[in-house]
Design a protein that fits this description.
The chain is α+β, with helices and mostly antiparallel strands. It has one domain. The protein contains four helices and seven strands; from the N terminus they run H-E-E-H-E-E-E-E-H-E-H. Helix 2 crosses helix 4.
Amino acid sequence: MKNFAAVVAVVLLLAVTPALGMQPDPTKCALCGMEMAKYPHTRYTITKADGKTMVTCGVQCGLTAHIRLGDAWKSATATDLFTNKQIDAKDATLVHGSRIITDMSPGFIAFKAREHGEKFAEAFGGKVMNYAEALELWRQRKK
């Protein structure tokens, strides 16, 4: 019986840890658990209001975290697909639903330059949008 209680406690802890915004294993996405080493080109980092950071595999998980955190975050960076450099997520141009799946489907892909996002969408499909539009689209999809 003690072993059963211990197993239940561990399972419950693992289940609520991501929801509480803690990242028990920095090698894995804070939301979906995918291995971060496989997705350096889509890495998304959120700095919460308390100064702690949360790292996700990409924009899609990052937007989900923003929705869950509400006002408890202060900044975020996304990885520009062309340069592989971190950019302010609020200033990024995002392409949603292209034929290229970088980390998750339907996927959002970040670009620093709008013209890069537009050229990418011309070649591979998807809708070009800014951060606010992407967040609203994702908020509606998560309902």
